[in-house]
Specification:
By secondary structure, the chain is an alpha+beta fold. The protein is 19% helix and 9% strand. The chain has a two-stranded antiparallel ribbon with strand order 1-2.
Length: 121
């Protein structure tokens, strides 16, 4: 069974360059091992990257051990739903791709909040 996005449609690819997703397959899919719920497909901004680093999660520095290239503004990445919500509450939530954001995100944030930050309508 294929996963659905927050709009109730088939979950679309978020990004393959850099390769994102908990399973590093380009999709914001999730499973029992994904305790962080990496389900929000976001187009990261410099404000968000600095915010994330200030919270102890440096997404800018490459970490080859985890096949992580480091992100720059404009890259898309499957973010933890709670980190996106935290950024939203702090006023620095990055834009999201609704078609590529897993339906599980709705357990953490509302569809209205996601739509207010959507890059894909």
């Amino acid at each position: 069974m294929s996963a659905t996005n927050v709009l109730g449609n088939k979950l679309e690819v978020c990004c393959t360059s850099p390769m994102t997703g908990f399973y590093r397959d380009g999709v914001c899919n999730t499973g029992s091992g994904d305790v962080g719920a990496h389900v929000v497909c976001a187009q990261v901004t410099s404000e968000f990257l600095e915010f994330s680093r200030s919270r102890g999660n440096d997404l800018m520095t490459p970490n080859p051990m985890f096949n992580f290239p480091g992100l720059k503004p404009g890259d898309c990445w499957c973010l933890c739903a709670l980190r996106w919500k935290e950024a939203l509450d702090a006023g620095v939530a990055p834009p999201v791709r609704l078609e590529s954001t897993h339906a599980l995100a709705l357990e953490y944030v509302s569809l209205e909040e996601l739509k207010a930050h959507a890059v894909d309508g």
